[in-house]
Amino acid sequence: MTLQAKQAAADGERAHWLAVRPRLVLASAFMLFLELALIRWTGSNIVHLSYFTNFVLLGSFLGIGLGFLRVGRTRRQPYYSPIVLFVLVMVVLTFPVTVDRETEGVLYWTSLSTSGPPAWLILPVIFGAAALVLMGPAELVGRCFPELPRLEAYRYDLIGSLTGIAAFTALSFLSAPPVFWGIVAAACYAVLLTPRPASLYLGLVIAPALAVVALLLGETLTAGALWSPYYKVTYKRFEQLGVPVTDISVNGIPHQQAVPAHVRLQWEGQYGLPYERTTRPPKDVLIVGAGSGTDVAIALSKGAAHVDAVEIDPKLRELGASLHPDRPYADPRVTTHITDGRAFLERTDKTYDLILFALPDSLTLVSGASSLRLESYLFTEEAMRAARAHLNPGGTFSMYNYYRESWLVDRLAATMERAFGHRPCVDVVSTAGQQAVITAGVTAEAQRCASAWPGAAPGTPEPTGDDRPFLYLKDHTIPPIYVVTLGLILVVSLLAVRVVAGPYRRMRPYADLFLLGVAFLLLETKSVTGFALLFGTTWVVNAVVFAGVLVAVLAAVEVTRRFRVPPLPVMYGVLLAGLALAWLVPNTWLLSLPLPLRAVAAVTVAFLPIFAANVVFAKRFAETADATTSFGANLLGAMVGGCLEYLALVIGYKGLLVVAAVLYVGAFLLLPRRAVAA
User: Fold this and answer.
1) What's this model's pTM, rounded to 2 decimal places?
2) Among 173, 249, 429, 610, whose Cα sits 20 to 30 Å from the Cα of 443?
3) Which residues contact 332 (CB under 8 A, 6 or more apart)?
């Protein structure tokens, strides 16, 4: 250990009562837990963030990078973090926002008005607050790095990150409300921030941390919300014209309505159209997006002998079981599956007389690291081919929703035409909101259309595919709202780095590590979206993939620490070979494999380049002169990678592998000569 490291270790021991290794693990776990909690909670109250969770993620990466760069420039404790967290929680609870879904280029199903502060005001506040909040735990993590050898510190950082993911996943599994997230945050602040002087500790740490818990407890008690792994679910029961009705909202948006089947058919006749377009009454029915159960109740009322009800959100299913007046989920003819609809189609060997996609509009993204929505893989050409493969002779496939744009109706109908080989039935029930039902028989003779669909209008975009599953984007462009927002984020980040970390020349020797961070975030995004296609967009798959990425990184660190690994040029060659393999292996081949074999093949293809990339990083990081600055540069690169992730809207997720390869080549060219020689 160098003299500087020994001095840092001595300072750390005098400053904190907890030994460096457990302190590093706890701080790293807290940092990742807090990041996940902020993404999840802000999105439930600021509905813009249900669609742009990447926004909070970018703020988190900026804050974490700044926290590392701040190490060595001050000895003051980051007491600002719990204070900013309290202010953020207060602002969000005082000024919640519902989404404006009229903005061109930000495409959702229906249209609702906005309440609360405008996006241009609230989103910068959220971004800046997320950065400041995460900068505190990151600074605490960074202060531990000089006290340990490079790779040992990185190893404990990864162990802590895995612990943070496990803790947040456990609370999600238990459907714990945010007050428990607040309790975890308060406890971590209390342990990690030094308790002296006592007056500052009580006033700047304990008081705001407890205030956050109190605010979140108030939200938990007054909102009457159920917290699923995806949403804050609220509901209201009332009578309308003597009919019992349950309105269900998620993240502040009206989402579903549980009413008796016969009443729903009276009020909105389009729910019966899938059954009228068939040539025979369907006996075996699959409903994707079963929700609170109204579509299931309608299928039973139409004479279904068995219904497989697929719903991704367990809390919506629970509400349907307890509150729906028809009690459809108690019917012995109904089997419930809590999973992703596309994943169910890829796994089941059953066939059906009717497959129905019943308003599958998720209102949220898969994760904070992608533009993928929970239902994105349901509307691709490959998904509709999978549905067709599960139809009995004479069977039909149908979907309905409020599509808002006429070109969306045409695009889905054209996708169905390409998948089924003939034109479907298209019933536009209401032009105000483009409420439509689209139905296709397994053959043209298996459907009964009221009138022939004339075909897609000129200018209708091509059907979406699994590589670019962005149904709501009309053109192969990044919408202006994203471009402007990301540009402002990068400008603000440049200024913040200069103010907090000093001259940019501090990071100049670590330009290659910066590019490694950019490329790795793209690689991680490709892995998340790839596994979502292969195994489902459920929160469990998402958590397992993120944990798997960290395990692969930890394995790379352990191999580098314990064994003599090939030199950097060779490892870069292995990395590029892994990227080439990922490019060459088609998703269609992986989906054709049995589930166990698919898992082995997917893990091999996805994690080989991740492992190689982190051997490269570990070898390079171990030789750096300044651990915290080099690590901070890498984290800031990850933030830029989060911005470049939106390139997938244009080039698809497979194209991100090419961008990552170019970045890795750039990182290799920027390697210091001594590192190449070593």
Assistant:
1) 0.89
2) 429
3) none
